[in-house]
Amino acid sequence: MGRGKIVIRRIDNSTSRQVTFSKRRNGLLKKAKELAILCDAEVGVMIFSSTGKLYDFSSTSMKTIIDRYNKAKEDHHQPGNPTSEVKFWQREAAMLRQQLQSLQENHRQMMGEELSGLNVKELQNLENQLEMSLRGVRMKKGNLIHQENIDLYKKVNLIRQENMELYEKVYGTRDVNEANRIPLLTEDLGMREESHGLGMEQGMSMKQIDLQLSQPQQQNYEPPARTTKLGLRVAKCILMETYSCNQMYKYSSYYLRKLIEGKRNNAN
C-alpha cells in the first residue's frame, strides 16, 4: 500500500518532530547543493531549529550571497537613482574583489600553502580535488605518449619499407647481373684455354682431373704427382677467378661438366 497523504501542520510529539526536522533539513540542503551544481546557481540556505541551532549551506560564501541579496533589494526599491547606481557598482567591485581573494586562497591551498586553518574534512576535500586533477593530468599524458608511440611506429614501418625497396633494387640488380654473367664466364673459360696454349702437360693434367671426377671407380689409374698438382693449381685458380667463395660449390660441377664436354669434343 502507498503512503497516505501527510497533513501539513505542526507535529505535537517532540521526538517525531525532531526526527522529521533532521530528515527534511538534510533533504533541503542536498537539493540546494544539487541546484547549485546542476544549474550553476548561487544558492544560500539558512535554517534555524526550534532550539535556535543554525544550519546553513552556500555555494560560494554566505556573506557574499547576503550582500548580493541586499543589493538586489535596494536596486529593486530605488530604480534609476544615480546614488543607488554608484552603490551598486561599488558593491559589485567589492564582490569581485572578494571572489578574487577566495580564488587566490583556493589556489594557494591547491599548491600546498596556507593549510593551517583547515580542519580534517576540508583537508580531505582538498585531497580529493588534487587526486582528481592528478588523474586527469596522467590520463592526458598517457594519451599523448600513446599517440606519439603510434606516430613513431608508423615512421619506423615507413623507413623499413623504404629500406626493403632499396635493398631489392640494389641486390636484385646484382643477382640478375651475376645470372647473366654465368654463360659469359663459361665461354671465356674455353677461350682462355685455347688462346694461352697451356701445353700438353697442363692439358693432360686437366684431362686427368676431369676423368677422376667423372669416373671415380677407376682407382687403378694414378697420374704423375707433378702433373696432378699442376692441374689442381690451375683448376683452383680458374674457379677462384670465376666465382665468389660462397657460390663455388654451386657452380663447380657446372664448369667441370663443361670442361669434360669440351675435352671430349676436342678428342673426337
UniProtKB/TrEMBL annotation:
GO MF annotation, one: RNA polymerase II transcription regulatory region sequence-specific DNA binding
One of the GO BP terms on file: positive regulation of transcription by RNA polymerase II
Coiled-coil ranges from the UniProt annotation: 86-113
One of the record's GO cellular component terms: nucleus
Residue span, MADS-box domain: 1-61
Keywords of this entry: Coiled coil, DNA-binding, Nucleus, Transcription, Transcription regulation
TM regions (residue ranges): none
The protein, known as: MADS-box transcription factor 23-like
Species of provenance: Cannabis sativa (Hemp)
